[in-house]
Amino acid sequence: MEGSQYPEWRKTYHEALLEVDPHKLTERICAAEKLIASRLGELRIGPKNLEEQRALLDACSALLVIQRPKLILSVGKGNSR
Q1: Does the N terminus or the C terminus of the chain have fewer Cβ atoms within 10 A?
Q2: 15-35 pLDDT tens trace
Q3: How far is the C-alpha of 66 from the C-alpha of 61, rounded, in Å?
Q4: Beta-carbon contacts of residue 43 (< 8 Å; ≥ 6 apart)
Q5: How many CB atoms within 10 Å of residue 67?
Q6: Are 63 and 16 in contact (CB under 8 A)?
Q7: Angle, nearest 10°, between helix axes 50-79 and 22-42?
């Protein structure tokens, strides 16, 4: 699958994956999640859109993985009170 095939959500998703500033990361993840959710809502379920649906779901999974360390750290800080 070519990256330019789904440019609207994919560009924002890649920006989130490549972000190294923790303060900007949350914003980029949120922006990517919104575009992905919007695109999933636009697509009709069926074989015609299967490739993009898979790409969108893979992107969701990847965003969860890069969020996980931040979530664990924030939970850990909350328990230390």
Answers
A1: C
A2: 999 999 988 999 999 999 999
A3: 9
A4: 49, 52, 53, 56
A5: 16
A6: yes
A7: 140
User: Token pair of 51, please?
Assistant: 């490739």
- Structure-token pair, residue 59: 């992107």
Q: Which residues of 44-64 are buried (b: 16+ CB within 10 A; e: fewer)?
A: eeeeeeeebbebbeebbeebe
Amino acid at 53: Q
In whole angstroms, give the CA distance from residue 19 to residue 28: 8
Domain ranges of the chain: 8-79
